Amino acid sequence: MNHNETINLLVAIGIMLLAGRLLGEFFRKLKMPLVVGELLAGICLGPSLLGKYFPQLNEVVFTTQGHVGLVLNGISTVSVIMLLFAAGMEVEFSVIRQQSKTALKTSFVGLISTLTLGYFSGNMLFPYFGDGAQSSQLVFSLFFATAMAITALPVIARTLMDLDLFKTKIGMIIIAAAMFDDVIGWILFSVVLGMMHSGTSSYEFLNTLGLTLLYAVVILTAGRILINKSLPWAQRNLSWPGGVLAFSLGFAFLGAAFTEKIGIHAIFGAFIMGIAIGDSAHLNEKTRDIIHQFITNIFAPLFFVFIGFKVDFIANFDLVLVLIVTGIAVVTKLLGAGLGALWGKLTVKQALAVGFGMNARGAMEIVLGLLALQAGLITLPLFVALVVMAVLTSILAGPMLKYLLTGEIKLSVKLSDILPVKEGE
Amino acid sequence: MSNIEKKAAYPFERIAVAVAFSPNTEAILAASKRLQDTFKAPLLFIHVGSHDQQQESYLNEQLQRFQLNGLGNEVVWETGDPVDKILEVCKARQVDLLVAGALEKESLLKYFLGSVARKLCRKAKCSILMLREPDLLSRPFERIVVEGSDNPKTVNTIEAAIYVAKAAHARMVDVIQEEDPGKLALIRSDAFTDNEADSNREKVLKHEKEKLDEILRCTDCGNLKVNIERLEGKPGFVITKYARDNKADLLVLNSPDTKLNVIDRVFPHDIEYALADLPCDLMIIHSRIDD
User: Fold this and answer.
1) Which of A76, A299, A348, B96 has CB 3.0 to 4.6 Å from B12, enough for a Cys bridge?
2) How confident is the model at residue A357 (pLDDT cuts 50, 70, 90)?
3) Which of B123, B142, B124 is nearest to B34 (CA)?
4) Predicted local distance difference test score (pLDDT) of residue A424
């Protein structure tokens, strides 16, 4: 990289972080996920807007081409691995295990129903919207099923907290079911990505599935024993927090490299490593918090802003497709998770609340969509539709849960919610 | 609902002792005598497995040695699966507390397969006291550590621990409130500003503290010194570590909320951390609330 390219890269990273944060905070004031603002920053800086009016700026600074583009692509790959590591750290098997049979039924029936409905919807959509992608109907349908099953734990946690339901029985059912969905969803997605590489014959499918499960089982059993022995050592003997941070992220990248090598996507290695490290009793809250802050405040914005550089959201926006995908997403989750909840003997209102709570797809759906786009599984318009669906379902979760559980509905936002509050007010 | 299900977790009106003719038998009997003197309850010695005249005479001799014969005490001889039989007898005889000896730590394989004592802890429908590697020297319960988690069972567990502490003339009771970092981390997610996250966290913790204060206000602690600690960490792990670090004599925990199996040993939670490496004697209070 020459002198000018270095400057361009640093300018790009600086503006990406600043624009992502400022717009993210604006949307947070509107009670929307931070990721909405970060995506919008990317859309503004990328080919959708800035690229249209100042193409020369877009070619050298906010670019996916040349050396600068290569480095930004590398940062994006590292970011997605870290994001999946952080998502893994949010999963607690003990929370799932501690739930009553009701919660387990809710999770299991909900997931199976969502996956089935998603699979058949994908099958029906393939002739219309799968065209142009490099995937077969089976792989496309499996991907679509997974995309419908993914949930957004942070969005759900925020909604439950706002409604004072976080520590209640129904709150924990929703959290446990969402964690369960995420684990199965990411395993399935890894298999789907593996099938894109290796083909769709039953031998190759079983081979990918077998490797995926084997990696998960080894890391979550023998790997956890090793982590539980070495983490206290790292906390005792290495400087804090640098030592544990390097230790945790080092394992995450090694896990990611290993899974990439054996033909499963790198994200899966990081996700499972995140579960193994996050579930360790030896990881204290401060360390957990630092890892989380480091990833979500530096790497997540870079990743989501960079999406805007890669995709022209305006040119690829297809209203019909957006409505269809969002409609299917809401219906599959409401029916799927709702059926699970009814099966688990919750009331109709509570079941709908579970459905809407889990309907939020959030940032992880966007990660999933981008990886699918990069793998040639889906086309650009479908990716844009998935992003819009992820944003809409996340926004919908809060007001709907509030309405169903308290009978109140509040969709308006006061100006004072957005404007900064002066000291003493 | 049977009578036993209506019964409160304490007082311990009938205590059963699992006897296995192991090198620990004499130490278990010595501890049984101390427990009988403390709780003034008749003892039921249960042995499961084949036995001969020699073993019977040995047990009678030892009961005499520790002044355990008479006093309403009985010996029950059974055959079959030790865990199932012991629990069957406990249910039939409306036992309030089952006592068994256990190793501090078991080999990895044995831990995953499950020893008799640990299986009893996971399956018992009455309260259970695991004596960690008992010896002939009396080890009174001077310092008792008890779980103060946000769980409907906690009120019974704390009351039972206070009852034990008063009966055993304990010096101090530590009530431990554990904060699960995983759940709190969700509150700290990027969906919140720092101030929001802190206030949410305080809201959750304040609510839990108020509940615990209410339990302690309603429990007659007499002259006991009660210390409340709020600790960060995985529930079960952090209280076990606290009991070990503070050289507690007895750790009192809630009974498990769900049926435990090998998956709970792979992904441990709550009492599994204590069972993996006993920090001291362990008492699990079965509050007889629906699981």
Assistant:
1) B96
2) confident
3) B142
4) 42
Q: Is B255 helix (H, G, I), strand (E, B) or coil?
A: coil
Residue A317 counted as domain residue: yes
pLDDT tens-digit series, residues B118-150: 889 888 889 999 998 887 776 789 999 999 888
Question: HEC states along chain A?
Answer: CCHHHHHHHHHHHHHHHHHHHHHHHHHHHCCCCHHHHHHHHHHHHCCCCHHHHCHHHHHHCCCCCHHHHHHHHHHHHHHHHHHHHHHHHHCCHHHHHHCCHHHHHHHHHHHHHHHHHHHHHHHHHHHHHHCCCCCCHHHHHHHHHHHHHCCCHHHHHHHHHHCCCCCCHHHHHHHHHHHHHHHHHHHHHHHHHHHHHHCCCHHHHHHHHHHHHHHHHHHHHHHHHHHHHHHHHHHHHCCCCHHHHHHHHHHHHHHHHHHHHCCCCHHHHHHHHHHHHHCCCCCCHHHHHHHHHHHHHHHHHHHHHHHHHHCCCCCCCCHHHHHHHHHHHHHHHHHHHHHHHHHCCCCHHHHHHHHHHHHCCHHHHHHHHHHHHHCCCCCHHHHHHHHHHHHHHHHHHHHHHHHHHHCCCCCCCCHHHHCCCCCCC
Count of domains observed in chain A: 1
Per-residue model confidence (pLDDT) at position B217: 80
Q: For A251-292, how does the pLDDT look when each residue is reduced to its tens digit (9 = 90+)?
A: 999 999 999 888 788 889 999 999 999 888 888 778 888 888
Tally Cβ neighbours within 10 Å of residue A25. Answer: 14
Q: Is A66 among the domain residues?
A: no
Domain enclosing residue A401, as ranges: 78-406
pLDDT (average), residues A373-380 = 88
Which tens digits make up the pLDDT trace of B44-60?
999 998 878 888 888 88
Tens-digit pLDDT profile for residues A13-30: 999 999 999 998 888 888
Chain A residues with CB-CB distance to B under 8 A?
Answer: 28, 33-34, 89-90, 92-95, 97-100, 153-155, 157-158, 161, 166-167, 175, 220-221, 224, 278-279, 281, 283-285, 288-289, 292, 296-297, 300
Residue A111 lies in a domain: yes
Let me know if residue A26 belongs to a domain: no
| ipTM tops 0.90 | no
Q: Options 3.30.390.50, 2.60.40.1500, 3.40.50.970, 3.40.50.620; which CATH number does B140-291 get?
A: 3.40.50.620
Give A41's pLDDT tier (boundaries 50, 70, 90): very high
Average pLDDT of span B166-191: 77
The residue with tokens 């065209």 is A131
pLDDT of res. A262? 82
CA distance A176 to B186: 12
Note whether A316 and A384 are within 8 A (CB).
yes
Is the per-residue pLDDT at B82 higher than 60?
Answer: yes
Where exactly are the structural domains of chain B?
Answer: 1-138, 140-291
Identical fold, B1-138 and B140-291: yes
Of the candidates A89, A158, A285, which has its C-beta nearest B191's C-beta?
A: A158
Interface test with A, best of B202, B267, B277, B291 (most A CBs within 10 A): B267
Closest residue of chain B to A222, computed from CA coordinates: B266
User: Residue B75, exposed/middle/buried by CB under 10 A (0-12, 13-18, 19+)?
Assistant: middle
- Interface contact B268, partner A, CB < 8 A: yes
Tell me if A34 and B190 make a contact (CB, 8 A cut-off).
Answer: yes
CATH number of A246's domain: 1.20.1530.20
